[in-house]
Each structure stands twice: as structure tokens, then as C-alpha cells.
Prior knowledge:
Layout: H1 11-71, H2 73-85, H3 90-108, H4 112-115, H5 117-126, H6 130-157, H7 159-165, H8 172-185, H9 188-203, H10 208-231, H11 235-260, H12 272-285, H13 287-328, H14 332-368, H15 372-399, H16 412-444, H17 448-467, H18 475-499, H19 509-512
Helix pairs in contact: 1-10, 1-14, 2-10, 2-11, 3-8, 5-6, 5-9, 5-14, 6-8, 6-9, 6-13, 7-8, 8-11, 9-11, 10-11, 13-17, 13-18, 14-15, 14-16, 15-16, 16-18, 17-18
Amino acid sequence: xxxxxxxxxxxxxxxxxxxxxxxxxxxxxxxxxxxxxxxxxxxxxxxxxxxxxxxxxxxxxxxxxxxxxxxxxxxxxxxxxxxxxxxxxxxxxxxxxxxxxxxxxxxxxxxxxxxxxxxxxxxxxxxxxxxxxxxxxxxxxxxxxxxxxxxxxxxxxxxxxxxxxxxxxxxxxxxxxxxxxxxxxxxxxxxxxxxxxxxxxxxxxxxxxxxxxxxxxxxxxxxxxxxxxxxxxxxxxxxxxxxxxxxxxxxxxxxxxxxxxxxxxxxxxxxxxxxxxxxxxxxxxxxxxxxxxxxxxxxxxxxxxxxxxxxxxxxxxxxxxxxxxxxxxxxxxxxxxxxxxxxxxxxxxxxxxxxxxxxxxxxxxxxxxxxxxxxxxxxxxxxxxxxxxxxxxxxxxxxxxxxxxxxxxxxxxxxxxxxxxxxxxxxxxxxxxxxxxxxxxxxxxxxxxxxxxxxxxxxxxxxxxxxxxxxxxxxxxxxxxxxxxxxxxxxxxxxxxxxxxxxxxxxxxxxxx
Length: 513
């Protein structure tokens, strides 16, 4: 029986199947092409993120390291004065120590001149709005000189009362203290202007220029000190005069440098053509009235920012001063150990506070450009760097606990008291670093009112604990637990504000998508 032939598909059928095969291949080719395009875009996006991350890190480093050296200059200036005045005698050194605390409190209270100026100039630079940058610097300059003049009069006429408030004994020491304060008062307007100028340069993301000016003025002070103190026989008063002269020289230098920055201060709105247009149209559209109203609103905003920052600064300084007062009542060894521990705190602040300076400028620039996601990325990176730096300082203080304190004292009682608070000091470093960074980030957003309220809440909680140190015999350990609560409270409030959906750095829904 013959086998049946398998039917051969017709040419049309084969062609039909061929078309299908080619169609499948085309679809697969398109899918492969689409997958390749998606992968290429993802790879390009990753490369772009890596590039922006590298640029971000470079900017942080470029701003932070000169800022850290500039922040370290103030203690260095004080150390130079102390070294020369210490050769005069015990009374002179005691008078300088009391006056240094008064001057530091008075000048630091006006640090808002730099703090409030940085984000204003940074946002104006980001918008390429030279007129706005000019107005911001003019407001800071006028305010600094006016406040400096008032402070100079207050320090000059109130030097005696300040010496009495610091517990300076009558006689020769009081006379020396009054003379030094009156000499430093002459430099108050210059010192406050310098603070405003530093804020302007930080807003331009230029921290090298302030570093150069600070180094030069400190060098001048170091040269003037021996000449005025010993050669001219001015004594302690000569040390104050040397510092005042150096501050005025720095102020003149800053003024000249700012005047030369025509690339920032000035712009299209300041051109002769624009002024002519404004003059011609003023009667028709009320431009002059609008400008006056805008200027008044900017002054009100600056005054509000300055008041909030000053309130925050005074609260912080007052709380730390109260902590020192409580430690003083514990005895000579505990207060000496407290002072040694504060030197470690201040040393760490030179580094972590420089990250806060970077945060103020970089976040403000991102906001000025309308790039809120970049502001968040900058903030995250600064927190990562700050946390790493804080952990590194903790390791340094922990492993160096047997040798580092002996750089300041070899008294066994003091060293024992220091070891009691060492665990608190070590554990506080990462905490402090995050606080400094978040504070700088929120300053960059100009969230001054919240920062002031948060500081007042944290300081109030700390004062409550410090009040109980004596009654409950908590000793120096209790004082430092109080300081830890201060920083912990600040971290909690700042972190809440940073992550809150209604916070100044909250992303809009379209930005998240």
C-alpha cells in the first residue's frame, strides 16, 4: 500500500509564514533596540549623577577647608594676645581673660550680619541678579557700621560696669581691664563690617579671600602687639589697640575687594539705560514707589532675620555660659576639666562648622536657581560628610584620651574629672556634626524663625537640667549631660524641620515624579 504524500504548503502559505517570521524578527529587533536605548539612557543618567556628585564634593571641599582655617583664626588671635600680655604680669593676664569673654560675647551676638548676608548674596548670584546682591551687601554694610558704632559707645562707656560684672577686683586689675575694653571698642565698627563682608564672600562661594584677609590681619596684629605693648609701653591697652588697628585694616581691605567685584555687585538693573527707563516711566507706572516699597520689604526681612539669628546666638551663648558657671561652683578641678573639654569641643567645631558654611552657600545657590532636588542632594551629602567627620573625631578623642588632655594640664585631679565626662564628649561628636550641618542647611533656606524657636526650646531643656546639678549632686557629668541634651534637642528639632512635608526643603509632587 503506497504511503500518502505529506502535502507541501503552497508558495502563498510559505510566503505567509515567512512574513510572520520576519515580523517576529522585526518585533524582537525593536524590543532589543528599545532595551538598548533604555540601558544607554540609564547609563548616561548614572554618569551624569556621578559627574554632579563629583562636582558637588569638589565645591564642598573648596568652600569648607578655607572656612575651617578662617574659623580657627579667632582663637589664634586670642592666643597671640595672651602670649604677649602674659609677660606683663598676673594682673594683666587676669584682666585680659575677663575682657576676652566680654568681647567674644559682644561680637558674636552680631554674627547675624554674616549669617543673614550669605544666603541673600548666594541666591542673588544664582539668579545673576547683580542689583539684588548689591542691595544685600548695602544693607549688611549699613547695619554693621551702625551697630558697630552703638557697640563702640556701649563698650567705651560701659567698660567699668562690664569689668565689675565679670568679677574683676578693684585696683590695678580693674584699671587694666577697663583700658583694654575701651581700646577694643575703637575697632567694633570694623569688626562687625568684617563679619558682613565675610558673609558676602561666602555667598559668592569664595572662602579663600576671607582666609587671606584674616591671615594678613592676624599677622599685622602679631607685629603690632610687641611694639605697642613693650616698645611704646602701652601694656594691656596696647594689645587692644593692636587688634583694633588690624580690624580696621581688614575692613578697608574687604571694602576694596568688594568694590572690585563688579561681576557680582551690579548688573543690568544698575545700568544707565535701565535707570533712564525707570526715570521716564516713573510717573506713569509708579516704578519709583514700587522700588521704594520693595526696598522697605527687604529691609524688614533683613531686620527680622537679624533679630531671629541674634536671639538664637544669645540663647546659645547664655546657655553655655551658664553651664560654665555651674561647673565653676563644683570646684577648681571640675571647672578646669570643663575648660579642657570645651577646648576639644571648639577644636571639633572648626571642622564641622566649615561644613555649615558650605551648606549655607550651596543650598542657597540651589534654591536661587530653582533646583530644589539639588538642594536636597547637597544637604544629604553634607550630612554624610558631617557624620563621617564626627565619627572620626570620636575615634580620635577616644584613642587619644590618655595623651590629648595632657596637652593642657598634668594635674591629676583635673585629669580624673576629665575622664568622668570623656564618654559624653566622645559620643557627642557625631551628634554635634549633624547639628552644625543641618543648622547651616536651614540657614541656606532662610528659615530663621524656626531656628530661633528650636534653639530656645533646646536651651530651656538644658537650663532645667543644669539647675538640678547642684541639688542632686550630679557633678561635672551632669553638666555635660545637660550640654548633650542641648545638642540632642537641636538635632531632633532640626531633623524634624528638614524631613517635614511642610519644611523649606520639601519636594513638590512633580519634582518627586
